[in-house]
Amino acid sequence: MVDVLKADQVLTGEEIQDLDKDYVMHSWSKQGNKALAIEKADGIYFWDYQGKRYTDMSSLLVCTNLGHNNKEIINAIHEQVDKMAFMAPAYATEPKAKLAKMLVDIAGDNYSRVFFTNGGAEANENAIKMARMVTGKSKILSRYRSYHGASLGAANASGDPRRFAAESPAASGFIKFFDPYIYHEKIKFADEEEATNYYLHQLEEQIIYEGPNAIAAILLESITGANGVIIPPEGYLQGVRKLCDKYGILMICDEVMAGFGRTGKMFAFQHWGIEPDLITFAKGVTCGYVQLGGVIVSDKVSKYFEDNVLQCGLTYSGHTLACAAGVASVNYYFEHQILDHVNEVGQYLGEFLEGMKEKHPCVGDVRYIGLFSALELVKDKATREPLVPYGTPNNIMSTIMGKLKEKGFSTFGRENNINICPPLIITKEQLLETLPILDEVLTWVDQTYLF
Length: 451
Known about the structure:
Layout: H1 13-23, E1 38-42, E2 45-48, E3 53-56, H2 59-62, H3 71-83, H4 94-107, E4 111-117, H5 120-135, E5 139-143, H6 152-157, E6 174-177, H7 192-210, E7 215-221, H8 236-247, E8 250-254, E9 278-281, E10 293-298, H9 299-307, H10 320-335, H11 338-359, E11 363-369, E12 372-380, E13 385-386, H12 396-406, E14 409-410, E15 417-420, H13 428-450
Parallel strand pairs: 3-14, 5-6, 5-7, 7-8, 8-9
Antiparallel strand pairs: 1-2, 2-3, 4-10, 9-10, 11-12, 12-13, 12-15
Helix pairs in contact: 3-10, 4-10, 7-8, 11-13
């Protein structure tokens, strides 16, 4: 017999934790542990059932760009629910049509249409399928430290250890190359131009060895996100674009994490003046209020599918409620000058991180652009030995994250990185109030793991 829990039945925080522990499966973790129960959220903060406040210094999973409880997004959802919550993707709806045009306009003059998905993994899955259909080729080149999602194709395109479960056996046609990760490169380059030339030469060699006539696309995060906010050296993305043009390969830029104002531009690739053939997005398009992702396609790709069937489909493609949230979110970015704010407040974040690098022996490198940043923790600044070796199971980083959360500083990291990506609405005052917690915990890291 089903134990019915009525909608108006109020549960305590402990009851929620117990139900969650017994019945919910959590991502990327062993099951059976109690998760922190959250009661409410507003702005850059959320609260547990004991009333403890946490500052959301990672925008949850780098998605709540416009903060929690944003009334303009919530009101748009309410208004759309009253009209129509969902319509099948074969029909045209006002929110879907509006949002598609807005996204095409944001992307630039070279773009025509949008295929909507439910999130970032599906966006990358469908971009891969489109690239293979348009080119008639099969291989997809992507990078080792990348993350493109957990579904089969997106996971096989991903480069970090989370792909391993999807490689038993692996999907065919996925080839990895190395990021331009200068901090850990054994070669000491004179400048970024020299580094760019080196990495592009390596990539071109690999293209030749793999066979340009077999490569459909190069898929890369414009800025490597979850795996350490690795910002490409000057000229690198432009060089990848040229290689794609030279060898008839499509360029897919994954903007799932870096897009929608995170870097101070609507899309991160716009910092380098390039035009990818396909742009994948999710997260900040609705700030997580309703799930939505998609692929923005160039004129060339769009034209191909005017004469050929698009063999992509999802029940919830262009979900009506999600698109209404997307329209409200995109309008908010522009009406509230979020890009200007990110560039202004991001300067203070960058200055603070540079101070942490100077002050703490455990901080080997800091990388930041807009409100997209990471600190890399090391055992030794001289040798740049990571505090946590890549791909090695341990509890050091989870302990550090736990120390931060214990003090009300909520964020995440992978390997030996701590990502700092607060909501884009954070004020200078809120930033300066919260960042000393990070300083305090880094002092503890110095004392615990280095001395």
